[in-house]
Specification:
alpha/beta, 25 helices
Length: about 650
C-alpha cells in the first residue's frame, strides 16, 4: 500500500483542483457546514467552508499522512522525537485551522520525498546489489565419474568442479587441470582477464572468458571470498563515521529544540500558521541523511573497484592520510625473489659447493628467501635430501644450522661478528657490492670458514614508481619504506621508485617504532604490509592496508582497507576516493544547514509557506543524495590516471635514509 500512497494522494489533490476549477464554490454544502462546525468550530468561524475540494484535500492528507503519524507514534514509544512527528503535528494543525491544502501538500511532498530518497539510497547501494548478482547459482561437479549440475551452495569441499567457457566459477578453489582466462573484476576490480593454470587460485563469482578448468573446491557457500566481501560491505555501509555520530547526537537535541522554538513563537506571535510552518522547515532530514548516503556511496564505489573499506570511521581516517609506510618485499617488489649470484671466496670450493651448503641450511628455514635458494639448488641437482639437524634463526642477522656435524652460518657481517668469525676473504665487501646493485647478499660460512656469498634479487614492480607519484598527487606528503633488508638494497629500491624516506634492517618491533614516530610527527599513517612480520606496525598505524587480500579470510575481515587485487594503483585510488567522499560529506552538511537557514529567513521575511517549505526541504534531501551519488561514477578513480603535471617519474631520486 505504501508505494501507492503518493499516487492516490496526488490524484486526490488533482481532483480537488479540478473541482475547484469546474464547480467553483457551488458545492460548499457537500457534507454540510453544520457537520464541519461540529467537528471544528475554529475552521468555520474563520470562514473556511468544507467544500468537495476541501474534502478531497483532507482525504489526500489522510492517505499520504497516516503512515507518517504511525511512524511518529512508534518513535515516541521509543522516546524519540522524530522528523515524522514534526510533519504529523504540522499537518494535523493545518487541518484543525482549516488549511487543507497545506496539510495535503506537506504530507504528499513528504511521502514523495521519502520514496525518492529510498530509491536513490538503493541506487547508492548498487555496488552491493551487483556483488550479490554475480553470486553463482549452479555448479557442474564430477560425482561418480559423471557431470552433475547442482545448486552452487550444495558443492562439498574437496569436490572437483568443472568451469567451462562463459560460466561463473561457483566456488573458491585451486585449479587441478586445464587452462583458461578468468574475469576477476567482481573480486579485484581488474578489467583484464587473468590466465589460470594448474595450482592457481580461482574465486566464486568470477567468469570464465575462455578455456576449460577443473577446480578443487576449497571454499563453498558462505566460506567463499565473494560471500566474505558481501558481508564486509554490508557491515561497512552500515557502520557510522565519527561525523555521522556527531550529527546523530546533534539531531537528538535539534528536533526537540524545533518543537520548543515553534511553540514559543506561536505563543508570542499568536500566529498558529507561523508556528506550524517552523515545524515543517525545521525538519533536519537533509542533515541526517547527508553523511550516511555519502558513506554508502563511497564504500560501494570502492567495493566495485576491488577495495574493501571497513566502515565510515576508516573512510574518514583514510582521507586524512599524510604518510604511507610500505614494506619492500611483496609491495614495492614482486615478492618472487630469485637467486642471481653465487660468489666463491674459498679456493678449495666451487659454485656448486656454496649453493649446496646454502640450500642444506635453508631447508630448515621459514624465511621467504629460503625458497629461491632451494629452487636454484634443485635446478642444479644439488638440493639437500634431508633436513638439517638443527636450525637457529638469529633475528636481523641470519640463521645457524647443524648439518651432519658441520656448523653452517648464512647471514650478514653482523652474524659473523657475533660468532667471532674473521672475514679474511672480503665477504663483507662482496656483500656490499651485491647490495648496491639491489640484491640481498648472504654470506655462507662452513665450520667457521667463509666459503662464499650468494645474492638474491626481487624484481621491482613496474608500477611502483607510478604508485609513489600518485600517492603524492593524492595529497600524501611522505612515502616511507620499512624493510628488514640491508640498507644498500633498500637504497637501490628507493632510488628506483621515488621513495621519500628509508628505514632498513628493521625487526618487526622496529617497524612499529617507525610508525609511532611518524604519528608523533603529526602524520596520519597508513601501513601496507603482509600482515605477518608487519602485524605490530599494522596494528599501530591509523590505517592498516592489506594488498592482494582476495582469498585471505583474515585480511578481508580484519584489515581497515583490503585491496583485493595485487595492483599497486589501488592504494592511491583508495586514498583519493576517501578524500572525495569526505569532501562530499562536508558539502552535504553545508547544503542541509544553508537550506534550513534560508527557509527560516524566508518565513520571518514572508513568502515561505508550509507547502513551499516542505518542497524545498525535500528538494534539499534529494540534492544531498544526488551529490553523494557522484561518487558512483568512474571518475572516482582519479588517482589512477596519468600525472602530466608532475612530469616523468625520476628513478634517480635520493631518498632520505634514517641515520644517513
Amino acid at each position: 500500500m505504501k508505494r501507492f500512497q503518493p499516487v492516490v494522494a496526488g490524484v486526490l489533490i488533482l481532483l480537488s483542483f479540478a473541482v475547484q476549477y469546474v464547480a467553483g464554490g457551488a458545492w460548499d454544502t457537500v457534507l454540510g457546514p453544520q457537520w464541519w462546525v461540529a467537528a471544528g468550530e475554529h475552521a468555520h468561524a474563520a470562514g473556511h467552508n468544507f467544500t468537495l475540494a476541501n474534502a478531497l484535500m483532507l482525504l489526500a492528507a489522510v492517505v499520504a499522512g497516516y503512515s507518517i503519524v504511525i511512524n511518529a507514534v512508534r518513535a515516541l514509544a521509543s522516546r524519540v522525537i522524530s522528523i515524522d512527528l514534526l510533519v504529523s503535528v504540522a499537518a494535523i494543525g493545518a487541518i484543525i485551522i482549516g488549511n487543507f491544502w497545506e496539510a495535503a501538500a506537506v504530507t504528499f511532498l513528504f511521502v514523495i520525498g521519502h520514496g525518492l530518497e529510498a530509491a536513490t539510497m538503493n541506487k547508492t547501494r548498487s555496488a552491493l546489489t551487483a556483488l550479490i548478482a554475480v553470486a553463482p547459482d549452479v555448479a557442474v561437479v564430477l560425482r561418480d565419474g559423471q557431470q552433475q549440475q547442482i545448486p552452487a551452495d550444495q558443492v562439498r569441499a574437496g569436490e572437483i568442479v568443472l568451469v567451462k567457457n562463459g560460466a561463473k566459477v561457483p566456488v573458491d578453489g585451486k585449479v587441478v587441470a586445464g587452462t583458461g582466462a578468468i574475469d576477476e573484476a567482481s573480486i579485484t576490480g581488474e578489467s583484464m582477464p587473468v590466465t589460470k593454470a594448474a595450482s592457481d587460485q580461482v574465486f566464486a563469482g568470477t567468469i570464465s572468458r575462455g578455456g576449460f578448468l577443473q577446480v578443487e573446491a576449497t571454499g563453498v557457500g558462505s566460506e567463499t571470498t565473494l560471500a566474505r566481501i558481501i558481508h564486509r560491505v554490508e557491515q561497512a555501509q552500515d557502520a557510522k563515521a565519527k561525523t555521522q555520530a556527531f550529527i546523530d547526537r546533534f539531531s537528538t537535541w535539534y528536533t526537540p529544540a524545533v518543537f520548543i522554538l515553534a511553540l514559543l513563537i506561536g505563543l508570542v506571535t499568536q500566529d498558529v500558521v507561523l508556528a506550524l510552518t517552523l515545524l515543517v522547515i525545521g525538519c533536519p532530514g537533509a542533515l541526517v541523511i547527508s553523511i550516511p548516503v555519502a558513506i554508502v556511496a563511497g564504500i560501494g564505489r570502492a567495493a566495485r573497484n576491488g577495495m574493501l573499506i571497513k566502515g565510515g570511521e576508516y573512510l574518514e581516517t583514510a582521507a586524512k592520510i599524510s604518510a604511507v609506510a610500505v614494506d619492500k618485499t611483496g609491495t614495492l617488489t614482486e615478492g618472487r625473489p630469485q637467486l642471481t649470484d653465487v660468489v666463491v671466496l674459498d679456493p678449495m670450493a666451487d659454485r656448486t659447493d656454496v649453493l649446496r651448503w646454502a640450500a642444506a641450511a635453508e631447508a630448515g628455514s621459514e624465511h621467504p628467501l629460503a625458497s629461491p635458494i632451494i629452487a636454484a639448488a634443485q635446478e642444479h641437482q644439488v638440493a639437500p635430501e634431508d633436513l638439517p639437524d638443527d636450525v637457529t634463526p638469529v633475528p636481523g642477522k641470519g640463521i645457524v644450522a647443524s648439518i651432519n656435524g658441520h656448523r653452517v652460518l648464512i647471514g650478514n657481517a653482523a652474524l659473523l661478528a657475533q660468532y667471532g668469525i674473521s672475514d679474511d676473504d672480503g665477504a663483507d665487501q662482496t656483500a656490499h657490492q651485491l647490495a648496491a646493485d639491489g640484491k640481498t647478499p648472504m654470506i655462507v660460512v662452513v665450520n667457521d670458514h667463509v666459503v662464499g656469498v650468494i645474492g638474491v634479487a626481487d624484481q621491482i614492480r613496474s608500477d611502483a614508481p607510478q604508485m609513489v607519484a600518485q600517492l603524492h598527487d593524492a595529497g600524501v606528503k611522505k612515502v616511507v619504506m620499512l624493510t628488514g633488508d640491508t640498507l644498500p638494497v633498500a637504497q637501490a629500491v628507493g632510488r628506483a621508485t621515488g621513495i621519500d624516506e628509508i628505514h632498513a634492517s628493521l625487526l618487526p618491533e622496529d617497524k612499529l617504532e617507525a610508525v609511532a614516530q611518524l604519528q608523533h610527527e603529526g602524520h596520519t599513517v597508513a601501513m601496507v604490509g603482509d600482515g605477518v612480520n608487519d602485524a605490530p606496525a599494522l596494528a599501530t598505524a591509523n590505517i592498516g592496508v592489506a594488498m592482494g587480500a582476495a582469498g585471505s579470510a583474515v585480511a578481508v575481515e580484519t584489515a581497515d582497507i583490503a585491496l583485493m587485487g595485487d595492483n599497486l594503483a589501488k592504494l592511491p585510488e583508495a586514498v583519493s576516493l576517501a578524500k572525495r567522499t569526505v569532501k562530499i560529506m562536508r558539502q552535504n552538511i553545508v547544503i542541509a544547514l544553508a537550506t534550513v537557514v534560508a527557509l527560516l529567513v524566508g518565513v520571518f521575511v514572508g513568502g515561505v509557506t508550509m507547502s513551499l517549505g516542505m518542497l524545498v526541504h525535500e528538494g534539499s534531501v534529494l540534492v544531498v543524495i544526488f551529490n553523494a551519488m557522484r561518487l558512483m561514477r568512474n571518475t572516482a578513480a582519479v588517482a589512477t590516471s596519468s600525472t602530466p603535471d608532475r612530469g616523468p617519474v625520476s628513478t634517480a631520486k635520493e631518498p632520505y635514509v634514517l641515520g644517513a
